[in-house]
């Protein structure tokens, strides 16, 4: 399937060859692979409005992440955050928005295969991707996928962080507390008030207290992680 906007010279080519399959959760699933992205501001008119189907896919993906967080941790604070997250995604109101891609999103073809990546690939082109305000680069090496621009999630902030291999998301801090769920990629993370970096793998859950300095260095593959901020 090819999505193209000639006016803005945006092209997203997705390989949906049904001969390509990977096994996740004991079933075969077709691989969807973004082959090429030409930089631009939005996708064509056919994708300017999110459909109910795409919203359902996004909510399904978020519920998968919320369930995984609850399974992977016994930290009471993280479990409370996961429960707030679960409540906000039960039946959120859809927003009108224009999907927006950045060059780094082409690197999802290099993501390691995990139980999360197939469902992520179903929604990647139906999301709003923004450059991080914490760096000067423009989405070539890292990006944030902002679910709050797609769904009304109330008083929490939910998004995806993509960091290309061998790149660093800078140390930063903020007042809301935060959890991360690593979805794909191995990286060195600083978190939870520690001054050291620790290597985390897909499925790991981390927690940052308010104003904890935290960041991540991607290793030999891109990192994909979900974050949730709440007060």
TrEMBL record:
This is Dimethlysulfoniopropionate lyase. InterPro entries: DMSP_lyase, RmlC-like_jellyroll, RmlC_Cupin_sf. It comes from Cocleimonas flava. Pfam families: DMSP_lyase (PF16867). Keywords: Lyase. SUPFAM superfamilies: RmlC-like cupins. It comes from the Bacteria. One of its GO terms (molecular function) is dimethylpropiothetin dethiomethylase activity. Gene3D superfamilies: Jelly Rolls (2.60.120.10).
């Amino acid at each position: 399937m090819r999505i193209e906007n000639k006016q803005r010279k945006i092209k997203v080519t997705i390989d949906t060859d049904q001969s390509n399959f990977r096994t996740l959760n004991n079933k075969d699933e077709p691989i969807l692979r973004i082959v090429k992205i030409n930089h631009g501001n939005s996708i064509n008119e056919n994708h300017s409005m999110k459909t109910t189907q795409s919203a359902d896919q996004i909510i399904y993906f978020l519920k998968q992440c919320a369930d995984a967080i609850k399974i992977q941790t016994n930290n009471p604070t993280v479990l409370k955050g996961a429960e707030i997250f679960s409540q906000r995604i039960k039946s959120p109101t859809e927003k009108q928005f224009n999907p927006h891609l950045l060059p780094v999103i082409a690197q999802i073809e290099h993501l390691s295969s995990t139980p999360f990546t197939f469902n992520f690939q179903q929604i990647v082109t139906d999301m709003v991707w923004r450059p991080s305000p914490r760096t000067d680069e423009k989405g070539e090496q890292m990006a944030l996928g902002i679910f709050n621009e797609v769904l009304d999630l109330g008083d929490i902030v939910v998004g995806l962080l993509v960091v290309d291999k061998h790149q660093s998301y800078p140390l930063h801090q903020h007042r809301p507390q935060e959890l991360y769920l690593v979805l794909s990629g191995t990286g060195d993370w600083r978190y939870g008030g520690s001054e050291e970096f620790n290597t985390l793998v897909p499925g790991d859950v981390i927690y940052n207290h308010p104003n904890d300095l935290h960041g991540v260095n991607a290793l030999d593959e891109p990192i994909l992680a979900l974050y949730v901020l709440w007060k």
